[in-house]
Specification:
36% of the residues lie in helices and 23% in strands. By secondary structure, it is α/β, with parallel strands linked by helices.
Length: 240
């Protein structure tokens, strides 16, 4: 496996945490600043549910925000632990779970720390729209891999580093259509599938699938596609 950050060393940018914490109060507003995320969520959930039986599965949601995917996984029958380093987001996630009745163990904790405490404890780990916001994404992948049981699966979604992603995800979504707050993404931090696959291999995982994830703003919906040049989902397996 790759050499990972020690559990006590920070693998985050405070500016990124502050940016998303500022959106906490409207995270669950389907017409708010996270509107595209609401549209992507059913597709992300289906991608996971088609590859692991959710009922009774132990699932860790890394970078959970205010809990959109975490609650959906729990509603599908999974036993969900969810992590984020922004206390404001975890507070909103817990409040929403009280209202919805979703059973999620929300924690302000890093994935590196929980990997040191509880290796090999999860049937699946999800890490959606998070890797492009941390200084060392390979260390996150390594920690996620250590958390998986043999045969467990890691699910990742991120943005490809291509001109199309720059045009659509930054210029189009942030500056023209106003679908996302300006400054949400930095092009230099986007991740090519080949880079992600290399991190998977370095963490002892086997790549199982890469699928494009297309957001269609004219219908406020999303779907899987063969095109991976903007958003994409990936699944990797820890060998049994």
């Amino acid at each position: 496996m790759n050499t990972q950050l020690p559990p006590t060393q920070d693998n985050f940018r405070q500016s990124e945490l502050d940016k998303f914490a500022a959106l906490a109060s409207r995270w669950w507003d389907p017409n708010g600043p996270q509107k595209p995320l609401h549209a992507l969520n059913p597709v992300r959930l289906r991608y996971v549910a088609e590859r692991i039986p959710l009922a009774g599965a132990r699932v860790l949601d890394v970078g959970c925000g205010a809990g959109l995917l975490s609650e959906a996984l729990a509603t599908g029958g999974a036993q969900v632990t969810a992590l984020d380093l922004a206390p404001e987001l975890i507070r909103v996630a817990k409040l929403h779970a009280l209202e919805s009745g979703a059973q999620v163990d929300y924690r302000v904790q890093s994935v590196e720390d929980i990997a040191a405490e509880s290796p090999g404890q999860f049937d699946a780990v999800t890490c959606m729209e998070m890797l492009e916001h941390v200084p060392d994404p390979a260390a996150v992948i390594d920690a996620c891999a250590r958390l998986l049981k043999p045969g467990g699966r890691l699910f990742v979604s991120t943005l490809n580093r291509t001109p199309a992603a720059f045009a659509l995800a930054i210029v189009g979504a942030e500056y023209i259509a106003g679908l996302l707050p300006k400054g949400t993404h930095q092009y230099r931090d986007f991740i090519r599938p080949s880079e992600l696959a290399g991190w998977f291999r370095g963490a002892g995982l086997q790549l199982d699938d890469v699928s494009g994830l297309m957001y269609e703003p004219w219908r406020n919906g999303a779907r899987l596609t063969s095109r991976t040049d903007v958003n994409y989902l990936a699944c990797a397996v820890r060998p049994a």
